[in-house]
Design a protein that fits this description.
Helix content: 40-55%
Number of helices: 12
Order of helices and strands: HHEHEHEHEEHEHEHEHEEHHH
Largest sheet: 5 strands, mixed
Distance between the termini: 80 Å
Structural class: alpha/beta
Strand order of the largest sheet: 2-1-3-10-4
């Protein structure tokens, strides 16, 4: 009887060993989450929230590493060329995978072919923010002043961001020139607007909401289709008759050749993290919790945004500096 039982069990042992060999151990060390912008901006805020919530689920710390430059293309290029072992990930965005590929020559990566896109983390509209002492008390006053002076001056976190594109489109809709004061990240840009050095900025809600609530900046309009439940009294740009709608989005992407079992686990844990009530509440506070998209849906969305944002950026004749 013993011999017959061994005869039944032994043929299955090689199969179990082969299956184990095909599933890589992951993660085996801390995970780098590359944020392709300076600290303090929306990409950084969303990335740090994801790292805080996702690291414990994966059993390793997720360390945010800021790699700003060239409209988020430097950080994206780093991840595209990284070892595809699941230990280097990117906060992909409407800049790195939307606008910048259309305006920066030779960015060093293919936004689709070089990445495995995992999940959308947040999608949020930008707001037009002005200094506390700005003479315009509402969006109508701001538009009247801009048309009277035939110019808008806006702080810009970086060339090629969705907020930069939104500002250019706003000027075109108003029929006025836009003077962009370019910074290395949204943190320094916001600092100068708060100080009154530059009169206004268009910025995504996650990095702006604290300044709005503290009163250090005044929000006078959202560049969205509808008003936000966060600020129900804040009008959209459409209400005074300007069809300027924009949205910044942020997600997680990995190098394209990352093994399927790693991508599957990363997808599973990210979706579970985004479904947590605490995480969703925090994202809602920041202006936008995402739909529960699959990797295929996020990938299709990026492909669509590449076409849409690229067309808008080329039409606006945005050039890198």
């Amino acid at each position: 009887m013993i011999t017959r039982r061994l005869g039944l069990v032994l043929p299955f042992l090689p199969l179990a060993t082969a299956s184990s060999a095909q599933t890589p151990a992951w993660p085996t060390r801390p995970i780098r989450l590359i944020v392709p912008f300076a600290p303090g901006g929306t990409t950084d805020v969303v990335g740090r929230l994801a790292a805080e919530k996702l690291g414990p689920r994966l059993g390793q710390p997720m360390l945010v590493e800021n790699r700003p430059g060239a409209g988020a293309t430097l950080g994206a290029q780093l991840v595209a060329r990284a070892e595809p072992d699941g230990h280097t990930l990117l906060v992909s965005s409407s800049t790195s995978h939307g606008v910048s590929p259309a305006i920066y020559p030779n960015i060093g990566y293919d936004p689709m072919a070089d990445f495995a896109h995992i999940a959308l983390l947040s999608r949020t509209p930008p707001a037009l923010l002005v200094t506390r002492n700005h003479p315009a008390r509402n969006i109508q006053g701001y538009l009247e002043q801009g048309r009277r002076e035939k110019e808008l001056t806006l702080a810009v976190a970086a060339i090629g961001t969705s907020s930069h594109l939104a500002g250019v489109r706003l000027g075109q809709a108003m029929g006025v020139e836009v003077r962009s004061v370019v910074y290395r990240g949204v943190g320094p840009a916001l600092t100068d607007v708060i100080a009154g050095i530059v009169p206004a900025i268009i910025d995504s809600l996650p990095s702006a909401v604290g300044h709005i609530r503290s009163g250090s900046l005044r929000a006078i309009a959202l560049l969205s289709e509808t008003r936000s439940p966060l600020f129900p009294d804040l009008p959209t740009m459409r209400e005074p008759g300007l069809d300027v709608v924009s949205a910044a989005w942020f997600g997680i992407s990995a190098p394209a050749a990352t093994p399927a079992p790693i991508l599957a686990r990363l997808t599973r844990e990210t979706r579970a993290m985004l479904a947590e009530p605490e995480t969703r509440a925090k994202l809602e506070e920041l202006g936008g919790a995402p739909p529960p998209w699959t990797p295929a849906e996020y990938t299709a969305f990026i492909k669509s945004e590449l076409a849409t944002l690229g067309t808008l950026a080329r039409a606006a004749d945005i050039k890198p500096q």
